[in-house]
Amino acid sequence: MILVLGAGLAGLSTAAHLGRTPHRVLEREDEVGGLARSVRVDGFRFDFAGHVLHVRTPEVSALVDELLGDRLVEHERSAWVRIGDVTVPYPIQVHTHGLPVDVRVECLAGFARTLVARRGAPAEAVEAATAATEPLPLSFLNLPPAPAGGGPSLDAWSERTFGSGFSRRFFRPYHAKVFAADPSTLTPDWVSWAVPRPTLDDVLRGALGAVDGEFGYNPRFRYPREGGIRRLADALAARAAPVERGREVVRIRARSRRAVLADGEEIAYDRLVATAPLPTLVRMVDDLPPAVRARAEALRWCAVTTFNFGLDRPLDHDRHWIYVPDPELPFHRVGFPSRLAPGMAEEGRGSVTAEVSRPAGARPPDDDDERRVLEALVRIGVIEDARHVVTRRRLDLPFAYVRFDRARREALPPLFAALLERGIVPIGRFGSWSYLSMEDAIRHGTETAAWLRGGST
């Protein structure tokens, strides 16, 4: 029997694709979805974090169509970047037109200098400095090799790829805010794939206001017409039913292959699919070597709180979200849920959400932090007047973004090997300790189910 711990998208997808293979799904919370959850507050819908559904593979696209079909709204992305007092379309690399001249010159000159510097370098060196790696379906089976010599930091990668101007104005401060860490201590592996890398022609066209083409991995996306992003998890759960909710595993006896629940029940399993964060999972497993446990203790991450505000009037723009690198502002991204689907707010009303990262273990935000966030939103004109706010709700994610650093590179191979030897399969964003979109999480589930049905352990 296969035991699936966690009813987020990865766990639900695994269960949904196991078919008649005997399995059980345990979820600690009273609802499914993990990060992809939504709440209803005073007629508004808010997601726990900014989620939109962008799909690159035919298999997942077909699955989403089966699950939700015409219950999805399709959008062309309207994403923006705020630089100083100016807001320009995303990605900034091809939208410098509209920025102050000195900022535009700084960005273009820096980008040109990176191209000149690469001309004399061996092709292998250029690739090592600027390569971008997409998430692997089953990262616990075939981790990519670490770059020779350790590879560049995330900060160095950004500067070598886009130049000093783009790095100083956007990438360095934005990465520092979203990961709540110094970018010079981070690595670009499995993050850089999401960052658009334009050509010189693209950058020059952007400086002249003549952008041609689409950029980024999500130029188009879909979103549930009603109910928020949780509708996707609910639809997957219907295929994976029954999900046993409110069932928390507190210990895993790996030698005897038994999971111990908080209520004292013990469940025997043949293999265990774990979507819990790796540090949490390792603490639950009872027979791991001390050296392996020490690896898990070296892993770092950041938490995110979303500050959600319901307004007594509709939004007067068509933007979906704005990236905010300015270190003087508390949030790294501002989203507009009511622009995603009609069901996110009652008619005649709008909604705004601001995301704020913090290091793991730091205190969660309080009412004073909320007040500062709202004041900043009013100051930059996102909310016209605080008096228009009729609803407030903070949503906290203790685990939000994995930090990609050298400790992670060194920790994952022995961690995965030790867990797999004990019949434990770590998947999902936090089980595989990676940076996954919703599509990637679903793929983890489908690939894991196929792998398990094949009998490989």
If you consult CATH, what is the topology of the largest domain?
A: FAD/NAD(P)-binding domain
Number of domains: 3
Distance between the termini: 13 Å
Structural class estimated from helices and strands: alpha/beta
CATH superfamily grouping of the largest domain: FAD/NAD(P)-binding domain
Radius of gyration: 22 Å
What fraction of residues sit in β-strands?
A: 15-25%
Helix content: 25-40%
Question: What characterizes the major β-sheet?
Answer: 7 strands, mixed
Give the low-confidence spans.
none
Strands across the major sheet, in which order? 7-6-15-16-17-14-18
Please tally the helical runs, counting DSSP H or I stretches of 4 or more residues: 14
Query: What number is the mean pLDDT?
Result: 90
β-strand number: 19
CATH architecture of the largest domain: 3-Layer(bba) Sandwich
* Top CATH class of the largest domain: Alpha Beta
Q: What is the approximate shape?
A: globular
